[in-house]
């Protein structure tokens, strides 16, 4: 059994789940507990498939997720992040190595900042024209989905060809 191929399959499923979170966050301004829970519950399967050791590997992932949840709870309390966003990033912390997770967080914040500026510009223009607009905050789920796709392409993209060619030769 090629566990590396399973790990890439799980990462593809994670990318799809995060894209779905972005879409639902954009449409309904909600990321469901079912989705974030599923992402979190699938993390141990990814740990196994990627060969993560219990110590320090899994312990680091659990500490990262716990630390992010505490920080995210603070952001939620001061109304800078929604609860679904906090739970989504907590679940992602179970999957991504700390440096990659921090890159995704920083890239998400940058993308969300740019998106917010674009939205504010549109709101200002609409108000000058006398139109009523919905000026709710830009959803983090969309920015997280974009950041994850970029980071997956950078981190995992180059190796996928090797994994696929090795796994296809196993079937021959």
From TrEMBL:
Q: Give UniProt keywords alphabetically.
A: Cell membrane, Membrane, Transmembrane, Transmembrane helix
Q: Does the UniProt entry include the keyword Membrane? A: yes
Which residues, by range, are in coiled-coil regions? none
Q: Which GO terms describe its cellular component?
A: plasma membrane
A Pfam family found in this protein is Peptidase_A24
- Protein's UniProt name: Prepilin peptidase
The beginning of the lineage is:
Bacteria, Pseudomonadati, Pseudomonadota, Alphaproteobacteria, Sphingomonadales
Q: Which InterPro entries match?
A: Preflagellin_Peptidase, Prepilin_IV_endopep_pep
